[in-house]
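Sorry to interrupt, but I need a hand with the structure work. Go ahead and set the record down below:
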Amino acid sequence: MKNITLALGLLLGSFAATAADMSKGADNFYKSDKVTQQKVTFKNQYQMKVVGNLFIPKTLNQNVKNPAIIVGHPMGAVKEQSSNLYAQKLAEQGYVTLAIDLSFWGESEDKPGHLISPEIYSDDFSAAVDYLSTQPYVDPEKIGVLGVCGSGSFVISAAKIDPRMKAIATVSMYDMGSAFRNGLNHSQTAEQRQAFIKSAIEQRFAEFKGAEKAYIPGTVNKLDDSTPAIQREFFDFYRTARGGYTPEGEKEELTTKPLLSSIGKFMNFYPFNDIDTISPRPMLFITGDQAHSKEFSEDAYQRAGQPKELYVVPGAGHVDLYDRTDLIPFEKLTAFFNANLK
């Protein structure tokens, strides 16, 4: 079990914030004076409420149809972490943007919170397309999607069966299925995988009989000498003023932590299967050259059909591309969406 816990920590895991850590333009809680923000709600196909922040450029002509972009947050995060930043920066470039909370996270429904359900997560993006397509100032033929970290795999899953998503971009993507089946760099053994599945199903049965819910490690709540580097990387974002955020009604110590009993659903999640069927719609994969997650963007790029591009950011790690505005290639994202939505 110790090995399983360590592996999970490395997957979802985790330096106390210092002036150096907050460098490179870290600005997760950026507030733009060039856009308006409105909270919106809509239903997915499961009739669950999805909550999002809608950003509209103050200069937007709302009497014509405009392109729009949906932004998804990192796995275990909420819309206030990374996705609001991306949504505002893209709205400043003339797009209607919508940063959503995935179902079971943040302000979106349903119960129990922190449940793993990649199929429903993917449907949330299609539901966001439904919502935007009903807005009189949005062109339903010009809607793009952007997924950060785990949402990268969810937008790919969604785009395979929703041709209304005309341009698909990912940043610091995690293939959440491969990450849980195989570990980073295929470091997880078959025995570890089976032990993990067994612990999840035992917890599911225990909860059915009334036991308290249990969560996988997610981001650690404190550091010690044994904390691995990847967990420290996540800790610097999720457990400091840099990016820490606790939704109303949540417990800070449980943020980022999925339910153990549902985690097996990721074992059955294969978002890159048939990724080539998204073609000829364009795809852009952005990753850092130092990112521990780079393998997933490289894998998706290799499997995807044309047109496609893999853009590697020099000097950037995985979490750097959540909020470090000096490293995030907003110009590249803007050029991609301009070329394919405008």
